[in-house]
Fold this protein.
Amino acid sequence: MLVKRKGITVSRLIMDDQLLHPGATGELTGLLNDLVVAGKIISAEVNMAGLADILGQSGKTNIQGETVQKLDVFANQTIKRRMEQCGYVCVMASEEEDEVIPVLEGYEGEYTIAFDPLDGSSNIDVNVSIGTIFSIHKRVSEPGYAGEEDLLQKGTEQVAAGYIIYGSSTVMVYTTGSGVHGFTLDPSVGEFFLSHPNITIPEICPYYSVNEAYSEHWFDSTRNFIAHLKKEEDGRGYSLRYIGSLVADFHRNLVKGGIFLYPRDKKSPEKSEGKLRLLYEAAPMAMIVEQAGGRAITDDGRRILDIKPTSLHQRVPLIIGSKKEVDLAERFFSSSSE
Ligand code: AHM
Ligand code: MG
């Protein structure tokens, strides 16, 4: 295994990863590098978001006479445009779009990408961290046709997954199945540098993250598990941290240790499978967390990565984070008959 030194650039590490796979064509390398560019463009726009009021509201014309786009629309278009003609992708899916997104004719490649262009978008207006999540698979169809079947693959088949968090700094975290690495964008030179080599999720887990406002609608398993975490037995003591932006909640837990839950509840039919999407949110985060030594399961004990999606926007209940806490959660959730 090559030594990952802090300070090397993300493109360098992506190249090094390719060297670990003899016979690699360089397509995945090219695809990841194009995503890095998309991340930099979105990051620059996110940093300008607070100026929207001064420069012009979304949908209106700014003082330069340009139409100001909503940030999630901008992020979606930026990734689509970069991917549709990069030559490495055959078909895409975005959390923002109902149908599969084709690439430009003549530009079909070997990979598929599913992405959430700007996750946590309810936080945009209030300067809270938001992010882009992506999941990459190899196509299963023959060249010439690419469609939903190429995207509806299990998480175990992902060849790469990652996210870019636009926070106090912009950080990109990704895995190609040989460890998880994090890079921080230095805006002065426009380059991502390795800041978090070989991330492993801490065994000591100080945080739990769940939307407690829904507790009245929780099933007993969720209620009992959270009540258990609150008991200061065995010297344990957890703090609650919930931002409401999966990328930000996940990133904190990955670096500091923690467990995040978005379980089913009794409130409304649309929450019957939780809120988060398998393709764009749960599966990529599950690949990252497992690569970092953690776990990701549903609230009925299924491993997220083993779920075969049946539709593009399928939702899934998610319990993800430090291994010991997810093991513990599994005991609470598997003993319930809900
Ligand atoms: P979005 O993709 O529309 O932004 O929704 C997903 C977000 C996640 O980032 C976050 O974990 C969750 O919704 C928060 O939901 P809630 O406000 O119900 O707690
Ligand atoms: Mg989302």
About this structure: Residues 27-48 form the longest helix (22 residues). DSSP finds nine helices and 13 strands in the chain. The CA atoms of residues 135 and 161 lie 4 Å apart. The mean pLDDT is 89.
